[in-house]
Amino acid sequence: PGRTVELRRKGPGQAALVAWVVGAGTGVLAAVVVRRGVDRVVATVQDPRARACARENLAKLNVLDKVQVVQADLFPEGRASLVVCNPPWIPARPSSPLEHSVYDEGGRMLTGFLKGLSAHLAPKGEGWMILSDLAALLGLRSREELLALPESSGLRGEGRFEAKTQPPKPAHHP
Prior knowledge:
The chain is α/β, with parallel strands linked by helices. Helix content is 32%, strand content 17%. The protein has helices at residues 2-9, 28-35, 48-60, 108-120, 134-137, 143-152; strands at residues 18-22, 40-44, 67-70, 80-85, 121-129. The longest helix is centred in the first third of the chain and has 13 residues, at 48-60. The chain is globular, with a radius of gyration of 16 Å.
């Protein structure tokens, strides 16, 4: 998780007045977006227990006052200046609610985000998709397939930011 948050901290773009985090899960990505200078975030989460977890984490991170956690299957109503999504990485069937954060059967969330993004962006808005290459490394989908998804969904990319995995440094004990 620490490596992913570091990538998110370095992401492209300007601070937006209102941002959405689609499929916000634990709420940590919404907190990172707030700390990047966004005034208000709407975080969508389907599962009631996950929404409660997100609210609890956002409160602990002292940003709950800037984040509205809502129930939605992907996007809330309206448009936003910045829409961020970190879809599950592995195209397989989840067997429990917790596994929805890792498994995305048939790429439903990944393709749903990409196909619905343009309809939910404000003029000159930005969409950020933060995606692990774990599925490609495991041979479950190709890197080329992942890189082609935005264009095949009718999106035009302004750029791509990639980060190499940085394993955590071992703790040094005197």
